[in-house]
Design goal:
six-stranded parallel sheet, single chain, 15% strand, 193 residues, globular, alpha/beta
């Protein structure tokens, strides 16, 4: 994930999107569960689903949901910096790079228990993990994060950014360099001093 594109924006007055979903509009992404969860919410005023068109949806969406086609990294970054809560309700997702992008952008996070990035990117302060397919649990998790007090909200955003920082290119290079040097020295190779 390019941390020059996906970066936090701390002025929460600019956060005019309550809930953001980014991904394919297909059943295994759980987007229908998200739509059902939003349908019963009085807290969510604006949600944005990015990744297709209304014709791609096989379910009804509440009026609060805007649908946008796939977007490039710069546009996604702008949307994420305007977002309160990023949601990935996948039925199965081996890791979920988009969760990393959202964390790096300072979003609070809600994912299903089937998203592989959970242990690396979510904690009680910055997100919630809900049982796959649990629309009531999903609604409650989203509403809980949307109603955090200002201090808890900022702490959650800082936690998202801090957890995401472990996965930047620079952080990865710093973790790998000693391993590469160690392997090279065991093999009798000389790598830059």
């Amino acid at each position: 994930v390019d941390d020059t594109i996906f970066r936090a924006h701390w002025d929460c007055r600019d956060r005019d999107i309550d809930v953001l979903y980014v991904g394919q509009f297909i059943p295994r992404k759980g987007i229908d569960t998200l739509a059902k969860a939003l349908n019963g919410s009085s807290t969510v005023k604006r949600a944005v689903f990015v990744g297709g068109t209304r014709d791609d949806l096989w379910f009804d969406t509440p009026r609060s949901v805007e649908v946008q086609p796939f977007a490039g990294p710069e546009e996604l970054s702008r949307l994420m910096r305007r977002t309160e809560v990023f949601v990935l309700p996948s039925v199965v997702d081996h890791w979920g790079v988009v969760v990393l992008e959202a964390a790096q952008s300072g979003c609070l996070l809600v994912t299903s228990d089937q998203v592989g990035a959970n242990p690396d990117l979510l904690s009680r302060s910055n997100g919630r993990i809900v049982r796959n397919g649990d629309e009531v649990g999903l609604r409650h998790a989203i509403e809980e994060l949307l109603t955090l007090n200002r201090g808890a909200e900022l702490d959650g955003r800082r936690t998202s950014v801090a957890k995401a920082a472990r996965f930047t290119a620079q952080a990865s290079a710093e973790r790998l360099a000693p391993l590469i040097r160690s392997q090279a020295s065991h093999r009798g190779m000389l790598i830059g001093r």
